[in-house]
Design a protein that fits this description.
Number of strands of chain B: 2
Strand order of the largest sheet of chain B: 1-2
Largest sheet of chain A: 6 strands, antiparallel
Strand content of chain B: under 5%
Distance between the termini of chain A: 30 Å
Strand order of the largest sheet of chain A: 2-1-4-9-6-7
Structural class of chain A: alpha+beta
Helix content of chain B: 55-70%
Distance between the termini of chain B: 49 Å
Strand content of chain A: 25-35%
Oligomer: heterodimer
Shape of chain B: elongated
Number of helices of chain B: 16
Largest sheet of chain B: 2 strands, antiparallel
Radius of gyration of chain B: 21 Å
Chain lengths: ~550, ~250
Amino acid sequence: MHMTKKQHLILLSMVAAMPLACDKGSDTGPDDDALYVETADGLIYLEDSSLGVFPGLTATPNIDDDDQDGTVDWSGSDISEDNDLGYLWVETRNRDIEVTLSGDTSSIRVWNDTGVILGEGASNSATISAATELVGLMVEFETWLNQGSLVFTDGDESFEVRITSSPLILNHHLQPTTEVMMMKFNTMGGNYSNMDIIETYEEVLGERFTSIKASKYGNDPWVQDEFEFAYMMGQDSYMEFVIDSIRNGQGQPGSGLDNVPEDMFEGPDFAVGEWGPARSASSLDYGGNLEVTPPVTVDGVEYPFGRVFYGGTNSYHPKDELMDFLDSQQVQDPFMIDSTWLCVGHVDEFISTVPDASSEIGFKVIVTDTHAAWDILDAMNPDMRLARYGDSGSNGHSLSTVGDITGSASIRALNDEVQETVEAELAIFMGELGLSESDVIRMPSLFEEPRGCGRYVAALIPGMTNMIISETDDGTPALFMADPFMRTDENDQSADPIIANVREIMPEGVETYFVDDWYIYHMMLGEVHCGSNARREPTVSTWADAAHLIEDTLATGAE
Amino acid sequence: MKNYISTSIAFSSIFLCTTSLAGEWEDQQLALAADMHISAPDLSLQVAELSPMITRADTPVFRGSLVENSDAAPLFLERFTSGEDTADIRVALAWVLMDFETLPLEFVQSEADETVRAALLEQYKTAPAEIAVPALNAMLEDSSSHVRAQAARLAGYQESADLNEMLILTLSDSSPSVRALSARSLGWHNATLAYTAISSLLDDEVPEVRLRALRALDIIDATQTAALPQLQGLALDRDITVARKANQILSR
């Protein structure tokens, strides 16, 4: 095995940056005759090994298929096509240098230009032969958060360089979108088209929007539920990842949207993983029930990648396999709120976050609020006809006028109960994130018990909390949410008091787009977020910013 | 299991024997469907082959112009009664049928599958009271606790005191779901006469029953409920939802 041209270039670029790197590591740099190691962050040597402390050198786990041979790259013996390695240079000063590896040694390989010299497939100690030039080493990890220690020894003196693979980091709503996607329905006739949403996405997002032919995937519209996007990063590597839900197209492997991650994303620099047994999914295992807050600081603890949250209870929750994995990644410290009172059971139905530049924390929590809806509806003319709500059965709610809603004791009683539950879960959510009421925007919302849901509820007014957050080409936050249709003329959004209210309560500087999701999504118990998905790019350069959240297993002996 | 099967068979037999009107209606519809196989073969085939879509709650539902075509109603009834579809598809077919017209109570009662029977009750959520109230009163006595719970839940949507007498009786149902939803509906009806009976559920062994009872009492008489001696204990309930509600009442 020889180092590839690309890998050589990476190492050479590090050499070119050496003076700067020296500045980063120390004011003085190593003595002229001293052993040192260089990474992309700078120099590590006896007198200043600060860049070698945990997490030290970082890289993505080598779990994609860069060489496209159909197997995960770690399982192969050829890294010539790989770009998921951590790189370091050793200045031996023309002396033999001893180097030892400890930690997760069976999940780490250290390569030089002849092959593996340390770790899996080799021993845990080696000699780097005396050289007059810098000696390049490459570090490869099997999976997430592998931790290791390289100790470089020159005679009686030695120093340590920690090596750590990236955790899996799930995207949050404040990260810019690189791609928004939705299934395209335009061939089923009647009301069963979502072209209003598709066209709005195309107009606002341009090439960042992708439509996927629905008929190719069994007309399964719930693209949010099938998978969740995430990423990993290292000093010299970056990889996207799809958490492929065990939903499996709402049926069995291969049905509906099940194959989308493999068809569209899996490949070089993009890996796919699944947690939990196939054919055993409950709705709580779906992507709409797996969300991430923006970055927060809670009781002085910084979460630079936000916090993962999902819905469930102690006895009914997402599969242990997925929860345990998310817990194991540590940096987004997951928590659970109860979503099981909802028919679909997803957190995205009642809570979300939107960017707010005027806020100290940079975002607002959006939560469904039935009282806010009553405030608006009670001020409306009860005789006002509601074009969309009046249809019976599968097309509407059998509520022809505003008065049919406001005059219904059962709808009021049900929504009072719902809001009690929402308030309780919001209190937990705010407590977990260290937020106050001033960080919350209350979205006018009403719920009902639709057919087939028994005592569990879904949105009566199309759920606007269930929105997609993206941005226009100039970076203005763009919120895509359901048109509430609380009006007579369905083509006149300016006459809709709920739209007017939502525009008023959203943070300044965001643009709102109310799209028609009524027939394919709303009446099928989902909304815009349920029917969309988004890839996003990181807004931080290194996951090491969150290293304080990760247990240093070599220090604690927990390896 | 043996008891359940024998009970179901007996239940179906009894109602099939007493459903002459419903039987007549059904026979007429099925005869129409048979005629349509000849007069409208394309429509017949479309109904027979129609596949459901799946809601986000994984429930099959039929969508499209066909389910809005009242001419196709007899064909949907024929497909429903054929029993060739699975229960969840038959539930979706039931919803199509009830969108065409309110189905006779006897037809609902004669359905052997409790899941489908419960689904057929959905029509009483919005049906006129003169149809829905006697039907829900009857279904509160169904042999299936699943169906009784559905009837107890839907009773809340009918703003009629004529359901309360039966709902008070079902507060002592053996099924916790029936007890809980009966309490809820009585609360929604603001049934002051039920206050004492609902109070007896505050020490029910099932948390949902205690919660629904507490909510109902709070709706019926918030002042009296805030003074209930059990409230302090409920504020420390082992179930967080019950404790939360009790504390909310205490904090007012």
